[in-house]
Amino acid sequence: MKFPERWNWEELRHKLVLTPEEKRVIAFIVAAFLLGLGTKCYRDTNAQPPTQMEKSQPRSHKAHP
Questions:
Q1: 26 contact partners, CB below 8 Å, separation of at least 6
Q2: Global pTM?
Q3: How far is residue 33 from each of residues 10, 44, 50, measured CA to CA in Å?
Q4: What's the mean pLDDT in 2-14?
Q5: d(CA 11, CA 41)
């Protein structure tokens, strides 16, 4: 199998034809990935210690006998 030495952008563009719906799906996936990555980086740099719950109030609302 012989590969061309240099890819011609016109040839490559004609081989990889995507419908508008496929382009939207790819854009959504890339945007979701970037937002997730941004959120992860933000949380890594701005980590807050977990707040401790007070033990004076019971968690359940059941009546105590």
A1: 18
A2: 0.54
A3: 29, 16, 26
A4: 72
A5: 39
